[in-house]
Structure formats: C-alpha cells, structure tokens
Amino acid sequence: MGGPVIPAPRVWAAAGCGGTGRDLHQLGGLAGVGLVTRRIGTASSVGGPMAVIQESPSGFVHATGRHAQGIDGFLARELPWLVATGVSTVVSIRASDLAGHTELARRLAATPGVSGVELDLRHDPDLPVASTPRGAAQVLDAVVSQLPGGQHVWAKVSAAGTQMLETVSAALDHGATAVVVTGTLEAAFGDGRPAHLSGPAVHPVTLRLVGEVRRVAPDATLIASGGIVDAASARQLVDAGAHAVQVGTGLFHDPLLAARVAAEIGAS
Which of 205, 261, 264 shows the shortest CA–CA distance to 229? Predict the structure, then answer.
C-alpha cells in the first residue's frame, strides 16, 4: 500500500449532521468544508420508533431509527444543488444486502459531482450485512467494482462490537481509500431504550481509536469523527494521526463550527 491520500478539504460535516447542506451554506458554514450526506438508501425508508435526540451534560443521546433518503430523490433534488454550489460531496450509503449496495454504487458512479461514498460498517445486529469483517469485505468488493478510479471509498467504523480492527483491515484490503473512526458510544435513554452518545464526552474515545487504527494501519488515510467542539479538539485528533476530521453534533450548537475548524487546520 502507498502512503495516505489526504482528503481535500480536510474538514467535513459528518453524515446527517449537516442535513442537505442548504442551511449550513446560507450561514457560511460550508466555507472550506466538504459534506458527507445523510444516509442514502435504495428507497426512502423510515424504520423503528420516531427519531429522538436528547441533550445531556455529556452531549447528545440519540436514536434515529432506520431513516434514509432514497437515491431517486437525492439525485433529483439534493445533489444538483450541491454540484451547482461547488460543495465537495461524499454520499453516505447503506443497504440491507449486497445487491442494494451494488445498485447504490452503480447509480452514483454514473452521476457527475460525487466525490465518493462513505460505507457505514459500524456494528449493528439489526443490519448485519456490513457489520462483520467478512461482511465489510463483501460490501467493499461490491461497491468498488462499480465506482470509477479516483473516487473516495470511506469505511466508517466505531468501537461498538468486538472486531473493529479486523473490520478496518478487511476494508483496506478490499479497496477502502480511507477509514473514518468515530467515538460514538452505545448508550440509553432514561427509560432504558437503546441509543447512542455523541458530543464532547466521546472525544477521548476518538483519540484512542485513532491511535489504535494508526498502529495496525500506519499507511492508511484516517479521518476522525467524534467530540470536536473547537479547532483545538480537532487539532488533537490530527496530532494523534488523523489526516482529516468530520464535525458532527457540534454543528447543532454552532453551525459555523466546521468552517472555523477548516479556517484553522484546513490549509496546514
């Protein structure tokens, strides 16, 4: 494997947290910033209970169900605006099976203006197709076979489950151009319903994951996501070995956060 390919720009709005990008753009929040879209599926879908986001002293506790924008609507209504605005766009995709991943990649490969795709390989017992090292390898093979050379293929992992490093190795061996590590943690609401925790409290977790992935894949391009609240916290992740960062729930408090981070570290 050659050396890392540094993503440009180096700061991205994390999947889902930037919405369609329109509101951030109007406020100046996409200046020097790329956008990872909300999750795109083969068809529009809403699954499980209604999405819930609650603020806690540690950050946001959230459960978003299986919401996904369909590929048809995304290509017809959202992507043309992103292309016209000149926003670097990586599309977050996830499907329930290999055929769905293949179809999504095929549709996006034929569409100008897409910089690449992000594959959510985080452990999910309810959606296991990409949640194991073997599944990750199969999904990467399916997606990479459809995409032209030069496009990003990002593999997103977290510490949930027990095989994160094995999944990282499988993804890189099967064509991932970068690994996105997120410190998002499994959590619960006050009534016991399962949820996830994002926000300032997970920043030390993200730092640990960056170090772990860097040790097993020293030549890989690494993108860190989780707990960024200012340029200093982003810089810590870069100093730990990340080549780029994604800003997520911090945008809910400060829509200009990613742009400010980009102004400080994007050109360095």
Answer: 261
Model pTM? 0.93
E strands, the chain, where? 11-13, 34-36, 40-41, 52-56, 59-63, 69-70, 89-93, 116-120, 152-158, 178-182, 185-188, 194-198, 222-225, 244-247
In a structure prediction context, what are the per-residue pLDDT tens digits for the chain, which is 268 residues long? 455 677 789 999 998 888 899 999 999 999 999 999 999 999 876 555 556 888 888 889 888 665 678 999 999 999 999 999 999 999 999 898 999 999 999 999 989 999 999 999 987 766 677 878 999 999 999 999 999 888 899 999 988 767 899 999 999 999 999 999 998 888 899 899 888 889 999 999 999 999 999 999 999 999 999 999 999 999 999 999 999 999 999 999 999 999 999 999 865 5
Strands (E), 77-193: 89-93, 116-120, 152-158, 178-182, 185-188
Report the alpha-carbon distance of residue 232 to residue 133 in Å, rounded: 33
Residue of 77, 89, 93, 217 whose CA lies nearest to 146: 93
Please tell me the distance from the alpha carbon of residue 181 to that of residue 21, in angstroms, as a whole number. 22
Work out the angle at residue 205's Cα, subtended by the Cα atoms of residues 200 and 207, and round it to the nearest 5 degrees: 95
